[in-house]
Structure formats: C-alpha cells, structure tokens
UniProtKB/TrEMBL annotation:
Record keywords, A-Z: 2Fe-2S, Iron, Iron-sulfur, Metal-binding, NAD, Oxidoreductase
Co-factor requirement: Mo-molybdopterin; FAD; [2Fe-2S] cluster
Gene Ontology molecular function, alphabetical: 2 iron, 2 sulfur cluster binding; iron ion binding; oxidoreductase activity
SUPFAM superfamilies in the cross-refs: 2Fe-2S ferredoxin-like
Protein's recorded name: Xanthine dehydrogenase-like
Domain 2Fe-2S ferredoxin-type: 7-94
InterPro entries: 2Fe-2S_ferredoxin-like_sf, 2Fe-2S_ferredoxin-type, Ald_Oxase/xanthine_DH-like, Beta-grasp_dom_sf
Similarity-based family: Belongs to the xanthine dehydrogenase family.
Protein source organism: Branchiostoma floridae
Database matches in PANTHER family: XANTHINE DEHYDROGENASE
Length: 94
C-alpha cells in the first residue's frame, strides 16, 4: 500500500514566514488568511472575484528574468496550495 504524499508550503504574509503542512486543496488563500491568521481586513463578499474586497498583493520569483513579479490577486479565487514561495501583503500589512 502506497503512503499518502505530504506537501509543505512555505510563504510569507506581511513579513512573517508561514509553513503549512498538508494544506487542504479546497481551501482558498482568503479562507486561510481569515480563519487561520485572523486577518479579517481581507474581506470576502461575492466569492467570484468581481467585487475586489478580497484583493491582496503578491510578490514571487520570476524565473523568466531572475527578478520578481508583484501584482494583485483575488484571494477568494486563489488556492492556498498555489502560494509556495510567495510574499503576500494584506491590508493589515500595507
């Protein structure tokens, strides 16, 4: 019988490093920020990315040029499992 694969995420939120072991693949970044970190300034309203109240800034390495990319994402649509290596800034960290 094969052992279940484990996954560990490492990322930063408002300057603090976080490691999440075996994250729930159905959890969004918004859910994690609000329920696990208490960062309730990042709101959730429509859950479809249309209203913008869940927007956070992300920065991550850009393999194309060796630098970094920074842009905003709708955290209600962003799977938590996709944030490996990201630096995330919420309204509390801005």
């Amino acid at each position: 019988m094969a052992a279940a694969a484990s996954m560990n995420l490492t990322f930063w939120v408002n300057g603090t490093q976080h490691e999440v072991q075996n994250p729930d693949p159905s959890m969004t970044l918004n859910e994690w920020l609000r329920s696990q970190r208490g960062l309730t300034g990042t709101k959730v309203m429509c859950g479809e990315g249309g209203c913008g109240c869940c927007v956070v800034m992300v920065t991550h390495p850009d393999p194309a040029n060796g630098g970094t990319l920074s842009y905003t994402v709708n955290s209600c649509l962003c799977p938590l499992c996709s944030v490996e290596g990201w630096t995330i800034t919420t309204v509390e960290g801005g």
